[in-house]
Structure formats: C-alpha cells, structure tokens
Amino acid sequence: MGASCSNCSCTNKETETKTEIEILESQGVFHKEALGAEAPSELIQKAKKYATQIIKIQSLWRGHRDRKIVSHLLKMLRTNSKYFTLEEARETLSSKVTKSTIREERPAYRFKTGAVYTGQWVGGFRDGHGAQIWPDGARYEGQWKDNKANGYGKFWHIDGDIYEGEWKDDKANGKGVYKQTSGAMYDGEWKDDVQEGYGKEHWADGSHYEGYYKSGKKHGFGSYVWKDGSKYVGQWIDNKINGAGVYTWYDGRRYEGEWLNGCMNGRGIYTWKDGRKYEGEYKNDKKHGKGVYSWADGRKYDGEWRDGKQDGIGIIEDCNENKKKGEWKSGRRVKWIED
Predict the structure, then answer these.
(1) What's 83's DSSP letter?
(2) How far from 262 is each of 104, 236, 239, CA to CA, in Å?
(3) Which domain of life is it from (predicted)?
(4) Which of 19, 149, 165, 250 could join 228 in a cystine, given CB atoms 3.0 to 4.6 angstroms apart?
C-alpha cells in the first residue's frame, strides 16, 4: 500500500555515521587528549558497526517501499475497468423491463460477459442489495444504485484480497478497509479507488503508518513506525518526507528539523544517546553550512561544514573550555589561527 521515503532519506544514517568517523580521525592531538578512557580506534569501530546495521535496515525499507506502493492500488483501479463495465449496464437497460419503477427481487441474471447478478432491480437497473460474481471468481456484494455499486459493499479479489467499505459509481469512495492476504491492511478514506484523506496502514512485520494521503500517496502530516521501533513523525509531500519532522532511531539517535525530498535539509538538531549533539545546517543529508558538534563532557566544534565534513573556519573547545581557532579543508585541519 502507499508508502515511501526517497532513496536519499534511506541513506542519511550511513552518512551521519561516516561523518562521526571523520571527526574522530581528523581532530589530532588536541582532540585525543580530551577523549578520556575510550580511545578513538574503539569509537571508530563502534561507528563502523552502526553503519553496517544502518545499511541493512534501510535496504529492507527500500524493498518494502517499492513493493507496497503499487500492489493494492493497481488492483483497485483494475476493479473498475475490468469488472464494472458499461457493456453490462447497457445490456440490462435494453431489456423489456426497463420501464418498471418498482424495486423487486428477480432470479439470477447471467450477462453475456459470463458474470451473474443476484439481487434487487428497478427496471433495467441493478438497484438495492445484490451480489455479482464474475467468471474468474471475483465477487461484489452490497448496495447498488442506477446499475452501479453505490453505498456500502464488499469486493473479493481473485487472489484473496478484500475491500469493504463505501462505494460511489463503482469505485471505492468514502471510508473503507483494504486487507491483503499478506497481512497488510489500509483502513481509512478513499476517493475514486485511491487513498485520499486520513488513514492507517499496517504491515505483517509490525510496521505502520498513520496520517494523511493525497492521490494514493502520503501527503500532509503523518507518522511511520518501522518494525525495529524507528519512527518518523512530521510532514510528507508526494510520498516523501518533506517539511518539518522528527526521525528517531531504534538505538536512541534522533533528528529534529527540516527535510526536503526525504533528506535532512535546512536547519536541524541531531542527537545521540550518549549525549553528543549536532545543531546546525544540512544539505542533502549532510552537514553543510554552519553548525555546532558537541560532546556530553563539554567538548565541541563550532564552525563551517561542507558535504558532511568540517570545511572552513571553526573553533575547537575542550572540556575545560580552552578554545583554539583553526581552518579545515575536507574534514582535516589545515592550520591553527592565532587571534
């Protein structure tokens, strides 16, 4: 069912971890003296371990996104074109009972298409409660008006998927529930066979989304929770994370800030469970612009960044509030600058 972030957002964890490795490897003696008990090599190995886990998680998300976005929506659209046809409506309207205005039960009627309708009629119109079965086994049972599925009804797809809810002119319109045999489910609002308005999606692996849709895509405010407990709460545009939002990872890391097409972009705050924090500007998932990277013991780098690396003028401060100004290029210090 409709779901997605872009490829860009699916890699932000990896680039964030790589940045951490670069910071640890590039600070030099000034940084090493302030590290305390845990050596840089140990921290680097931990960061690399996180990177491996992150890539696995996000590859699962990419596959999940690609599979879920198309399956049920295509089936709903095919429902209208394949099963509810004008040929069947024209066939009964040309019958001799067209002029009748009384709703009545009649024997089962077999269309030239092979579909069989059993239920109520008004003249040549299927009208009232009725059930229709198609030759391939697909079935609709519910309310009809003016020869179309109108009102409340249930449709069984040939593969076992089921839609139950409100209909208008042979299409899912209003509130309805779509259940897939895989265990996935959408419960919410529909317009012309696609998700539109507020709804909830659940998948068999435990992941779920709750929020708004437009034209079958996530659009507006919504929250997505992955099976590992990672969570995003915020704005979506055209099925991508866009605008202001908060992404929380299963290991305690958290980003709160601006997004563009699934990427951290603009101002934001990225925090780690151990107390580290970056507050500043991002571009395409990377630190870019001005920002402050700080540790729980008070150490920090306050300066310029480019493509996820320190680049430009910055100030290093140790846990005793001693400060040194320097210039960095591509993550490596070029020189110290004396005031």
Answers:
(1) I
(2) 55, 9, 9
(3) Eukaryota
(4) 250
Structure tokens at 31: 């940084």
DSSP β-bridge partners for residue 313 = 327
Pairwise CA distance, residues 85 & 153, whole Å: 17
More confident residue, 180 or 33: 180
Centroid of chain to Cα 25: 35
- Cα–Cα nearest to 184, from 155, 156, 162: 162
Taking residues 278-292, report their average pLDDT: 97
Report the pLDDT averaged over residues 234-251.
Answer: 96
DSSP letter (8 states) at residue 11: G
Which of helix, strand or coil describes residue 46? helix
Burial 285-306 (b: 16+ CB within 10 A, else e): bbbbebbbbbbeeebbbbbbbb
Sign, CA torsion 161/162/168/174: negative
Closest CA to 224 of 216, 212, 236, 232: 232
Distance, CA of 157 to CA of 176 (rounded, Å): 15
Whether the per-residue pLDDT at 66 is higher than 80: the answer is no
**275 vs 286: CA distance, rounded Å:** 20
* CA 254 to each of CA 241, 248, 279, 336: distance values in angstroms, whole numbers, following the listed order: 15, 4, 12, 32
SS3 category, 244: strand
Q: pTM higher than 0.90, yes or no?
A: no
Cα-based torsion angle of the residue sequence 237, 242, 246, 247 in order, rounded to the nearest 10 degrees = 90
3-state SS assignment for residue 229 = coil
